[in-house]
Design a protein that fits this description.
Number of strands: 3
Largest sheet: 3 strands, mixed
Helix content: 55-70%
Number of helices: 4
Strand content: 15-25%
Length: about 100
């Protein structure tokens, strides 16, 4: 018997313990952080959100000066992201260079 795609996807999501949902949420958070950074810091690809886990977004920068600016504007970036995502979703940025 051939299973419907819907049934297959639902079984897979249940089997991963909802892990797929968490990955989708992380992807949305990373996109929103990128948009918040772009609104505050116009560097193009020099600054990029990479991962989201346990309220922490990892942001990578190509230059130390970009990393410093992101650290200085961290509260603004987090406030904008949480405005769009819901209060308390993003708690901290981890900035790497």
């Amino acid at each position: 018997m051939i299973d419907s795609l819907k049934n297959l996807l639902n079984r897979k999501i249940r089997a991963t313990g909802g892990g797929l949902g968490e990955r989708i949420k992380a992807s949305v958070v990373v996109s929103i952080i990128d948009a918040a950074i772009a609104g505050i810091h116009a560097t193009g690809a020099a600054v990029k959100a990479r991962t989201f886990r346990d309220g922490i977004v990892t942001v990578s920068c190509e230059a130390a000066v970009d990393a410093q600016e992101i650290r200085l504007k961290e509260s603004e970036i987090i406030a904008e992201a949480n405005r769009r995502l819901g209060s308390g979703t993003v708690k901290k940025l981890r900035v790497t260079c």
